[in-house]
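Batch 3, record 17
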Amino acid sequence: MEAENIIKMYTLIWVLLVVFTIVEVMMIAMAFPPVFILLGVIGLASLKAVFIALYYQHLKYDDIAISWFYLMALFFAIFIVIVFTGGSGVWPIQ
Amino acid sequence: MVEKPDYYSIKHWLTTTNHKDIGILYLFTSLYFLMVGGSLALLFRLQLAFPWLNILDASAYNQAVTMHGLIMVLWAVSPLAFAFANYLVPLQIGARDLAFPRLNALSYWLYLFSGLLAAVTFFIPGGAPDVGWTYYAPLSTARFSPQPGVTLAGLALVMLIASVTVSTINFIVTVATMRAPGLGWSKIPMFTWSILFTVLLMLFAFSPLAAGVLLLAVDRVFGTAFYTSPEGGTFLWGHLFWFFGHPEVYIVLMPALGIIGDVIETFTRKPLFGRKYILLSMAAASFISFIVYVHHMFNTGMHPIVREVMSLTTESISVPFGIIMLSFIFSLYKAKIKVTTPFLFAIGSIFLFIIGGITGVFNSSIPLNHLIRGTYWVVAHLHYAMVGATLFGLLAGLYYWYPKMTGRMYNERLGKIHFAIAFIGFNVLYLPMFIIYDMPRRVYTYSVPEWIPFNQLETLGGYIFGISFLLLVYNFYKSYRVGAPAGNNPWGGWSLEWLTQSPPPPHNFDFEPVITGDQVTLYTNGGQPEPHIEHMTSLPMYLSLGVFVTFLGFVISTPLFIIGVILTLAVLAKWMWSDVLNKFVIPEPVKSERWPFENTSKLKLGVWILVITEAMLFAGLIGAYSLIRVNMMGEWPPGPLVHDVRLGGINTIVLLTSSLTVALAVAYSKFGNERNILLSLLASLGLAGLFIGIKAIEWSELFAEGFTLTSSLAASTYYVLTSVHAAHVLGGMIVMLYLITKVLKGGYKSGGYEGVENFGIYWHFIDIVWIFLFALFYLL
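Prediction for the assembled complex:
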């Protein structure tokens, strides 16, 4: 890719990241329902993370095996959160 | 070219970075810790030989038991495996050294000094930790165990985790990118495979433990209440500890299985039966080991669904291990077996593992677990798995590779006698524990008359087992002096380490190992081997010493702490400066087998592995956040009520912008635009400074409003997580200064700008972490 195009792409990603952040803050200011805010905020944060990983960290262009490492860490992170909170007894007892 | 000191001089051993030397250092150090841990065991076995004996009082007994567990698991058995890993993995894959020799030396020195730091606790007021090797909270908090030894051993654990992390990076990168041409994954010896599984387990297991220890340290030093409040407490520690603790069993065990595989292949003179299925089973067991850990917490009142799921996963892990054991046993069928000492230890290990494994299945049943938890049944089971299977496997390796390491044959007869005595002693020690399964563990005495003969038998077995090691020491010492020359390949082994001299030269091979075809065939090109670079640097040793002094001073003496900090910073500065001047550069291997990382350099893969360990650290911390927040329910104040969301948003944009400027620096580095690289890095540095500045303002405002570190669990969680993140930002700023200096000094002229790109990977990760912290603390 040409130098100019790479810089354009990085700048475009940055604009998106900033816009997503502003949307997150506005969601709080506009007092949406809590579930909507929870899903929206986590969803937007995840989207931002994916953009950074794919383009700024170059996962899109690197060996796929690196992505597998990343996904494995993501799997364990989600597993940890689910089991840690699941163990606390907030799930309905049958 | 660095001048090499004499091999037998102290200077050589303080400065070496050669993987074989480091392996030997690991070997002697781990055997030393094995002796210390073993001596503690003999001491408390003596105490238990008779009821109400007072060789050890309750406190001394608890200290001995705690340190025995910590030392054996963390500083003896696992590092003994890494002695072999250091010595043999590069040889088995046909490499000249590990990927990062200086970091390998750093791993060793951090390990040594961390062990010494743990051992120092015996000599400070209050003595060694007496809280059990599991460090269960809230017992391990300052409220119930105020003695400084608990803090100091915790800091030793932090040092050890750093050592393990560096090792993990080194071994993954080495095996992934430095295999000899033609040495595909299917041809790698079992031992190297087992080390790969081990370091993958370490990669995901140790960082969450670091998160748990960090929270414990904050509790003990700054008075927070992560582990003393009901919202965190014993649940929080149990999760963070056992997410590490259960895979740790397999971290310890895997290398022994790899050794057994190699030993059986060599002495049955044929390939392993079902080799592919053994490897698949090892992979499956490695993965499942992370999703079973709650069986250590069945008695905590954990939600029934979680317990039931973990009971099933725990039972399922016996399937892959069953396949591995059956494959080993089938490999013996119709084989022309050469019965040697390593073979006997390998078979002994399989036998003991089967007992340890089957008795472990009992623990996966929730009702049985309630019955036998905290009894000598568990002690017997875990020792059959971790001493029987593991130590016997490692001893097989010690005898197997002794001729390769020393160039001498040991006395076979003495070796077999050692095996016989050790095997008998071991079973006399642990088998009776299954019979008195109702005797509680971790209690310094007892008064039930029926238990007396069993305990006496166990003590007798313990001493027989311990004394049997004197035979090993005598055999190896005498053989080293007068043993028959071993030759290159005394066993007729097929893996690459047997094709070079015994002991191997510093550069490992006088030829270029090349493997072709389905069979392992070796071609020598007859030309010049790839150059082997010896660093000979004392920086890893001094850096580890600096950390040791810092931690020791932190607990016992402020002046010592200051000296330690100065020493650590000075060594770090010198290390970075030597890198700015490109004093230590090891080129990528010219020809190597590196699928699936064909387009990834060693350094880049190393940075990625580091990022994965960091991701697991934050996974542990965010797991803690989730547990606490769910348990606090309505008492956790919503983020917008506490934090200035707009200011947090602005700071997020500041950090995102720094990611853009770092990405631009990477882009400019690809096109060699030095001026723009500098400008981008300077902008990134400024933005990172601005982020820290805004954070400081936020904190001071929150403090002024009474939202302090100890004002509530929500506040403590916020400050700890954002501090850890800020520490990463500050670390990144130091690396930016290093990169700027290196660019100014022309340090990248010859080697491209890979350092800038690799830094980018780290920096963007820090940005990703903040994106989630901003969401979790400010917006929700």
